[in-house]
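ingest -> validate -> predict -> emit
validate: passed (alphabet ok, no gaps, 183 aa)
predict: started
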Amino acid sequence: MSAVCLLLLLLPVVSAQTYHWGPCPVPKVQPSFDLQKYLGRWYEIEKLPASFERGKCIEANYAVRKDGTIQVLNSQFYKDKVRTAEGTAVVQDPREPAMLGVSFSYFTPYSPYWILTTDYTSLSVVYSCTDILRIFHVDYAWILGRSRFLPPETVRYAKELMIREGIDLFRMKATDQTGCKDN
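emit:
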């Protein structure tokens, strides 16, 4: 099957994602990342579109399991109910602990989940990208906060960091965090 045919077959799959021609950018990640400080609840402030995140009040909770893997529990309010998805994250290379892999199914490989920067107490900037035959790539980016709302200057700082690292934010949108119930 030619690359063009494959591309045409894959386009409907990635239409709710953000895709670009060429290979993934390779941004710098958080130096000396401390997973223990990162654990806990993070709220989604802004993101590049993702088919699996269409609701509001989106948040992620990270906790270490007994086997050393990281439980990822995502939740969102969508179509009048709370929907959750549980996944597993792993540190794939102890020399680069900010470059996690995450999967939400036993049948799929780990996808990149790279923490570009975090102060652990208020802000985290996360990026994920998958090359498709180095012809194009599908990427995701998130600005996360420990609270549902971040000051505009913090969001601007996060966006500027991603742009400097070669990440296209044209389709980035704010996540609706209004009217949410806290657990």
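The two ends are 50 Å apart (CA to CA).
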